[in-house]
Amino acid sequence: MRAGCAGAAIVIGIMSGSGAFAYVPEPDSAQIADAVDQGVRLAAAHDGYPSKDYLVHRAKDTLALDPDDGDVDAVLLATPLERTRHAAFMGAYTGHPITAAEARSGAELPDKWLEVIVFAHGNNDRDRKFGEQFGTATLDFPGRSVASVSIEHSKPDRSQYPHTPRDSERFVGTVTYKFDLTWITITQDKPVTLAFDDPSGKHFEILIDLTRFP
Hints:
- By secondary structure, the protein is α+β, with helices and mostly antiparallel strands.
- Helices cover 18% and strands 30% of the residues.
- Strand 5 and strand 6 form a beta hairpin.
- Helix 1 (29-45) packs across helix 3 (100-106).
- The protein starts with 8 loop residues before the first strand and ends in a 6-residue tail after the last strand.
- The relative contact order is 0.23.
């Protein structure tokens, strides 16, 4: 359900009913090798790197600047296996294939960690510092809340939002949160709530079912 005014909470259900427990906090060698093979095959297809299966939130129209969406266009969840696949993809795509061990190291996401990548834009066409204005995020488990241990933001690039009739140009970039879940017991039937505020003051609460994300 989306609230109709700026600053109100957004609660988005990404629930999947029944299914096998998918999140792999500590991938073994066979799982890592499979992720690397996937990344290499994706690079060979020259069709880009697919992220939609790890999407947990997106604006109603990512080509428009709707104030109800705040400063956020989309939010992706990244896991140790997904980041390993991405590292293998980037190596193969750039003509520098890497080993399974190098891909796991290059993922820069340790076992039992999660990463959240927020795609965001500035409040106006001069705002380059929006990434610096994102505060700490939390992952709320039943009975325990875990704060992000790091916040990184990319250099801003210019982009257009063509479905916005006026003032459609913005600086855009990513804000990346990392979470250490070493001391968290993750259960199949308990969703997690990702919470953060964007620079416009909008509060996000996104329900994440970790059974959907290997």
